[in-house]
Every structure is written in C-alpha cells, then in structure tokens.
Amino acid sequence: MSIWEYANPVKFMRTSGAILPWVVAGAAVCTVTGLVWGFLTPDDFRQGSTVKIVFLHVPAAMMAINIWVMMLVASLIWLIRRHHVSALAAKAAAPIGAVMTLIGLITGAVWGQPMWGTWWEWDPRLTSFLILFLFYIGYIALWSAIEDPDSAADLTAVLCLVGSVFALLSRYAVFFWNQGLHQGASLSVQSGERMSAVYRYPLYLTMLGFGLLFLSLLLIRTRTEIRRRRLAALQAREMRA
Amino acid sequence: MSLLSVQGLCVARGGLRTVEGVSFTLDAGQALILRGPNGIGKTTLLRTVAGLQPPVAGRIKMDDDAVAYAAHADGLKGALSVAENLAFWAQVFGGGDVAGAMAAMGLASLSDRPAAALSAGQKRRLGLARLLVARRPLWVLDEPTVSLDAASVGRFADMVRGHLAQGGAALIATHIDLGLDARVLDLTPFRAKPSPDAQPAGFNEAFA
Amino acid sequence: MIALLRRDLTLAVRAGGGFGLGVAFFLILCALVPFGVGPDTTALQPIAPGILWLGALLACLLSLDRIFALDHEDGSLDLLATSPLPLEGAVAVKALAHWITTGLPLILAAPLFGILLHLPGQAIPPLLVSLLLGTPALSMLGAFGAAITVGLRRGGLLLSLLVLPLYIPTLIFGTEMIRRGQEGGATATPLLFLAGITAGTLAVIPFAAAAALRVNLR
C-alpha cells in the first residue's frame, strides 16, 4: 500500500468519488459557520466593522499561495514520476488559485479603502499578490494554448518550476523596492496575541473551510479532466478502428 | 557489428501509438526502405530512431552521434549562400568536404547563390548534400526525393550507393524505386492495435 | 558553437533590422514619453530610470519570438538537436546572439537616451552598469519563453505574457540602481542583486529552455 496507488486514474476516480461528498459537506459547514460566526463578532475598537472582511481576505490569500505550492509539488511529481493524474491536478488547481488570488486582491481593496483611504497601494504584499496573479494567468494561458496534452503537461510543469523561483524572487525584490503600509501577518505562532481569540477561532474555521473548499473544487475539476481525457482517448480509438 | 538494431519498437504520435513490434537491423553497407500507407507512422518512426522523440516501448541500439537525419524541411537559411549553408552544418557536425558535397549533388555552379533564390529541387539537393558533410554513418531519410527530377534522383541514388560502399547504412522512407539493392520493410502489418494491458503511449491513452 | 553564433549574427545582419530595429524602437519610446508626461525636467527626471529600463525590456521582447521560431520552421532545430552540439549549448549561444543583436546596441545607445530624458550625468555610469548586468538575463529568460512557445502558431502574445513576469526582479533592481545613482546613494546592493539574478539565470535557464525545446520537438 503506497500513496502512489492513487496515481492510477481508476483508483483515483473510485476513491475521490467516495470522499467527495464528505469534503463538499465539510467545506460548506466550515465556511458558512465560520463566516456567520465571523459576522456576528463584535466590532473592533479601531477598525470598526470593516475588520470582518478578514474572514474572507486572509483565507483566500492563504489559499492563493498554498495552491501555487501544491501546483509546484504536482508539477514535480509529474516531471519525476510521470503520473498523469498529478499533471491534471496541477492544471485543475490553477484557475482556483487565480480566483483565490483575485478574491484576496479585491477584498483587500475593499478593506483598504476605509482603512488606508485608498483602493490600491503599491505596497509589497499587494504587489506580490498581483505578480502571483500574473503567474497564474500565464500558467493557465499556456495550458490552453498547447493542443498536445503531453507537451502541455511537460511545458507547464517546467514553467511552474521556473515561475516559482521567480515569483519568490519577485517577492523579495518587491520588499526591497517599497516598504509598505500593510500590516504584518495577522496570525503567527510567535505572536498569537496580536489577534484576540474572538476573531481568531472563526478565522481558523474559515481557513479550514477554504482549504476544504479548495480540495472539493480540485477533486471535482480533476475528475472532469480525467473524464475528458478518457473521452478523447475513446474517440481517437474509435476513429482509427 | 550492426550499425543500428531496433527491437520491438513502438512509437506514438500525438499520444496515440502508431506502429508497434517493429524489429530490424542495419549492418554496414545495407539500406532499408520503409513502406506503408500515409499515417502509418513512418515519419514518427524515423524521428524516434533519430532520437528526436522517445520510443514508447522497445529498444534502439546504436552508437552515440551516429545519425544524420533529413526530413521535409532542409534547415536552410535563405539569407546565406549555398556554400555558407553547407559550411555551417559541416562545422556543427565536425567538418566535412563542402566542395566535394556540392559537386556530388551538382551544386558547384550555384555555390554563391543565396539559398532563397534556389528552386525547390535545388534546395532539396542542398539539403541532401548536407548528409555528405555531416559524415555520420547512419542516414535516416524521410521522403528524400520529394521535388527532385529524374536526373537528380539518379544522382541521389549514386550518393547513397557511395555512402553504403564506404561502410555506411541508410534507413529511407520513400515510395519511389531508387534502384538501390535494399531490403523493403512494409509497416502495414505492424499497425498498433488497442489492447488493455499495453503501456500508455501518452496522456489520453493513459485514461482509456 | 562559434559557428552557430557566427551564423546567427550573419543572419541578423543580412535579414536587415536585426541590429537597428531594437534601438529605433527604444528611441521612439524615449521620444514619445515627453509627449505623454510633458517636457519639464522635474517631470522627466524622476521617471527616466524606469522609462529607460522599460524601453530596454520592451525592445528586447520585440525580437524574442525570432530566437527559435525561424529555426523551428525551416527544420534547423531538428538538425541542431541531432548534432553533436548539446542543445543547452545551442540555447545559450542563441541567447548570446540575441543579446549581441539587441542588448548590446541598447546599452551603447542608452546614455544618449538618458540625456534626452534629462538623466543627470552622475546616473549615467549606474545606467550603463545596470543594463550591462541586467540585459543578459533578459535575453536568457526570453530564450526560455521562446523555447516554451516555439511550436505555437500565435505564440507572440503568450510569449510576452509568460516572459514579462519573469522580468520583474531584474527591472526592480535595475531601476533601483539608477535611481540610487541619480540621488548619489550607494548602488552596491542592487548591483549585487542584479548580478546574482543574471548569474543564476545564465547557469540554470539553458537547461530549462533545452528541456522545453526537446518537448516541443517530439
């Protein structure tokens, strides 16, 4: 029994089909509960009720980065072990990641307007998210531009590798370029005190909810991709027979 | 010792296997003509032997850097003269006799002409003359006689014969009779059949 | 490898526009900027480093798709892949040829355009050094993008979409270096970063680009 068994499309379809309803239910429960709970929290003494956007903003921003990391890992697995499901999972994750990045940027703008008095500021954190969004766009565009699925999987994986290095590099370059006004990380292990428990627990819940949401979307999209491949293969076989 | 030994070769185009179970050997001085209907995978097989794409299954045994490959595109630069084009490939492949190659394909009088000003047949001759300067033992040729006239086909056949006589070998996909003393391999019986336990050739087949 | 370099340079000269076109584009860009932002020194001077670097970036981008596309069309790339030359070496040489035909003329012309944009004299040496250090990375990353999009019929737009985000760190450190030079500050930090990015790019990208080319050839 090894984890690589799930790289077999048939096994993957069977297992993912079995767990998918539970993941979807978990995502719905956690996200909805977390958001409602978050909405019912008392207003912050400094930021007022605007602070409540944190329950969308932080989980989306967190997932935006995590999804790129997941794509990087999936691309590496494809390049090294040639498991087709892995390449398809990376493909399926990209639009989700792009949307998460966009949610992070938009909620950030909505939050920034009352807080900093501007919709957009060329602050390092905001800028690096914009750059991340550009990388997502390029990755998605490359997948859709190449017809041959093998070449597309290989080339996007190479792009993801090189892109990761440069996305990281851009992040540090951007910090060098402009010290910003964005607050530091809201949650961190060392400074647990920075955010009061009133906000922290609903935030944890929405973060878990967004993680499960990503997982369910990822499973659904990967299953769709696998079915599309199967369809294409059957059609090609039909045509030749 | 054979120059090229192919065993149980299976190749794929666009993620779908085309021919499988192809085996043959080529010794020094031998030529092999590939035949088969359009789309059977002759070009794919030749590209695989030339090392431009990996085989799906099977083994290809030959020395490193043994192949000179010539296909539909001749790799010519229109802005360079005939002699410059040949000299470039001679340098890349480690030096051959440029003047001799031009003479062999009847290009000597055109040597200063830019390649863009050549006719289709002349370009083809230039592309084939490149084989002489590459000085590789194994020629892998994909439809080498396209747009050649009868005299040039004869000249090309002489060139291949000379190559074989010097201990070279040639693997040629062609439909015309070159008048060579060569074996013929028809790929039709090797057409790939779908089977559930075959290794997937590519992305789509992996999910069938 | 030298033969390949010589051939690419010869082709760039003979095909026309290889050397001049990038610089002409650079000139037009620098000439258009004052029309857009007004001719005042106070308006032009602070943005001059950015304009110069953006101009270099775009001029470099213009000719990227030609690095491999022509060789792919006429079959040269197939032949290069079967030649004794390692494909990584061919990539590096072709990126070098691209740099000599576009990057180098830009560097030589840049001080002139700096004067057009009222860049103070003390910023000219950092301008030259930053371009000299940065443009090889632009060519090499461009070769990577060109290798990825070589098989696509309409790869030009996609190429810029893929390559421009990769240019961000180089752009940031390049302009920062000129800006610091302009203000008379220490330029060592951005200079080292710029050199580091370029060195890393030159070391790693040929392998990535060659891998992409191999995928596109099969």
Report on the structure:
The complex is a heterotrimer of chains A (241), B (208) and C (218). Chain A is an all-alpha fold. Chain A has helices at 9-40, 54-81, 84-116, 124-145, 149-177, 197-240. In chain A, helix 2 packs across helix 5 (149-177). Residues 188-193 of chain A have low confidence and may be disordered. Chain B is of the alpha/beta class and 208 residues long. Chain B has one domain (28-52, 64-187): Rossmann fold (3-Layer(aba) Sandwich). Chain B has a five-stranded parallel beta sheet with strand order 5-6-7-3-8, sandwiched between helices. Chain B has a three-stranded antiparallel beta sheet with strand order 2-1-4, with helices on one face. The longest helix of chain B has 16 residues, at 150-165. Chain B is globular and about 55 Å long. In chain B, 50% of the residues are buried. Chain C is mainly α and 218 residues long. The longest helix of chain C is centred in the middle third of the chain and has 30 residues, at 87-116. Chain C is elongated, with a radius of gyration of 18 Å. Chain A binds chain C through residues 131, 134-135, 137-138, 141-142, 145-146, 150-151, 154-155, 158-159, 161-163, 166-167, 169-170, 172-174, 176-177, and chain C through 144, 148-149, 151-152, 155, 158, 161-162, 164-166, 168-169, 172-173, 176, 189-190, 193, 197, 205, 208, 211-212, 215-216, 218.
List keywords for this structure.
heterotrimer; A: about 240 residues; mainly alpha; 6 helices; C: about 220 residues; 10 helices; about 80% helix; nucleotide-binding (chain B); ATP-binding (chain B); translocase (chain B); transport (chain B); membrane (chain B)
